[in-house]
Design a protein that fits this description.
The protein contains four helices and three strands. It is α+β, with helices and mostly antiparallel strands and 94 residues long. It has one domain: Arc Repressor Mutant, subunit A.
């Protein structure tokens, strides 16, 4: 019954992050933080989790002298998230 579910998306923050990243090309750290209403540390720990799973990609740059970090869903992450959503749909239809 739980076939296709991905443990990475059981947490509301990671589920929300992937939902945002699936429909946007690149999203800034501050924007993710505001949309998800989490602290810097909380978001950073979930980012680390998704990076280790290779579900997201990180791009660090500077705007003037200010650091800017943006994220996007990787191909692996997109595929995993789509599979997770299919499993949810299948569960709901039962």
């Amino acid at each position: 019954m739980l076939e296709g579910f991905d443990k990475a998306f059981e947490n509301r923050v990671r589920l929300g992050m992937m939902s945002i990243l699936m429909v946007n090309e690149w999203v800034e750290f501050i924007e993710l933080k505001e949309l998800l209403q989490v602290t810097d540390g909380n978001l950073a720990s979930h980012i680390t989790y998704l990076e280790k799973a290779e579900y997201i990609e990180t791009r660090k740059s500077f705007i003037g002298k200010k650091p800017n970090t943006t994220f996007r869903a990787s191909k692996t992450g997109k595929d995993a998230f789509k599979q997770h959503l299919k499993a949810l749909e299948k569960l709901i239809k039962k």
